[in-house]
Amino acid sequence: MSERESDRSNSDSPVASLVARLLARRVPATLLAVCPNSAAVTQAAVRAAHRLDAPMMFAATLNQVDLDGGYTGWTPDTLTEFLRVEVDQLGTEVPVYVGLDHCGPWTKDLHYSEQWSYADTMAAARATLEACIDSGYGLLHIDATVDPGRPGEVGLEELVARTVELITDAERYRLMHQYPAVAYEVGTEEVHGGMADRSRFIAFVDRLYEALSAAGLESAWPAFFVGRVGTDLHTTRFDATEARALAEIVRPFGSTIKGHYTDFVDNPADYPAAGMGGANVGPEFADVEVQALLRLAAIERKLGCDSRFRQALKTAVVDSNRWRKWLSADEQAAGATFEDLAPPRQDWLMRTGSRYVWRSSVVQEARHTLYENVSGELDPDSYVVAAIEDRIAYYLKAFNLVGQASWASPATAI
Questions:
Q1: Are residues 239 and 367 in the same domain?
Q2: How many domains are there within the chain?
Q3: Is the residue at 32 inside a domain?
Q4: Model confidence pLDDT, tens digit, residues 30-74
Q5: Interior CA angle at 282 toward 13 and 83, to 5°?
Q6: Are residues 268 and 319 in the same domain?
Q7: How deeply is 42 buried, as exposed, middle or buried, from its count of CB atoms within 10 A (0-12, 13-18, 19+)?
Q8: Which domain covers residue 358, as residue numbers?
Q9: What's the pLDDT score for residue 412?
Q10: Residue 161 within a domain
Q11: In this structure, are 250 and 358 located in the same domain?
């Protein structure tokens, strides 16, 4: 790879500018991106950022937030409106940005499971991109690595072509409507994306550079490349050595590395030192929400009440079948039912799958009863949000983001 000292990572974008400033500090910082998988998590993130004077980024997948409402019930417009209300009520001036996570063909579970055609899933991705740009999203993650017909990996040339096509469409729409610049993120940490191999990662960066330059899209050069840095939903150790190596690959291009699956990571303080520009956390905060609710359920039992919240949550997760997505290869090969699994494994799947079913009528009714049963002892909603806020604060501190709101644009992106 030739050395290309560049500031192509869309320097006019508030998100790209913020990341560059945070990494250039004497004590570098990594931007935390919270997945808005529930109202409680989203509220907690804004409140943690306000309390610690830190910038806040949200990373919403197509499954969570989309034109059909996703599993949260939010569209891009209603999510940003929810955030505006939270910001206004707190009177906070910390910057709050919204990002789109994993947008591309078949990255939405529905498109993959129903085997949508390439034309249909790409059209849906474009519609989502346009809606997010309309809503003021500051970061767009283009992930063109998924293809149900080729679960191993998409060919490099096709991967680059699909990525450039979606960035071209997004930029054309943005410029047509004279919207501010946005930052872009590309790639995936998933093995199925074929990006786990460092030589393929280098080839992808080089070919994307050539293709975007040929298309006249230098200004849309990605601020982030997603790197495989040792973490996934089942591992908890961040590989700082690999992260530094990947960061060195993209630094000459003016880009940085973003980590996904930062949940439950053992060594989050190593992210800034390794030059990580950003890190996503999602399932962990759903787990914290469940644990707080189960503590409330223990309190109600001491009061002689029982909302049967745990059973309602477990039933909803099992009935959703979303837990099957997180089965291991051995469990899938064995054709395991939920009840075949050991109790600790069932509990993990219930907590991980909780984010998919918060809007289930069964879960909502049980949660409402639970809150009523303990309301004489404490404010249950505040209790749950505070528990999540504390965990988000843990990452803000580990990533050196406390007191760093002033390094961002003075206006929020929403």
A1: no
A2: 2
A3: yes
A4: 999 999 999 999 999 999 999 999 999 999 999 999 999 999 999
A5: 55
A6: no
A7: buried
A8: 304-376
A9: 53
A10: yes
A11: no
Token code pair at residue 382: 């505040």
Taking the whole predicted model, whether its pTM rises above 0.85 is answered as yes
The answer to whether residue 354 scores a pLDDT higher than 60 is yes
Same domain, 358 and 228: no
List beta partners, residue 225. Answer: 186, 257
Q: CA–CA separation, 91 vs 286, rounded Å?
A: 26
**Residue 203 and residue 314 in one domain:** no
Number of residues that make up the chain:
414
Q: Are 315 and 61 in contact (CB under 8 A)?
A: no
Task: Please name the amino acid found at residue 160.
Answer: V
Q: Is residue 277 within 8 Å of residue 30, measured between CB atoms?
A: yes
Q: Is residue 175 domain-resident? A: yes
Whether residues 238 and 349 share a domain: the answer is no
**Do 264 and 321 share a structural domain?**
no
Q: What is the pLDDT of residue 190?
A: 59
Q: Which residues contact 234 (CB under 8 A, 6 or more apart)?
A: none
pLDDT in tens, 317-349: 999 999 998 888 888 888 989 999 999 999 999
- Give the number of other Cβ atoms within 10 Å of residue 341's Cβ: 16
The CA distance from 136 to 162, in Å, is 24
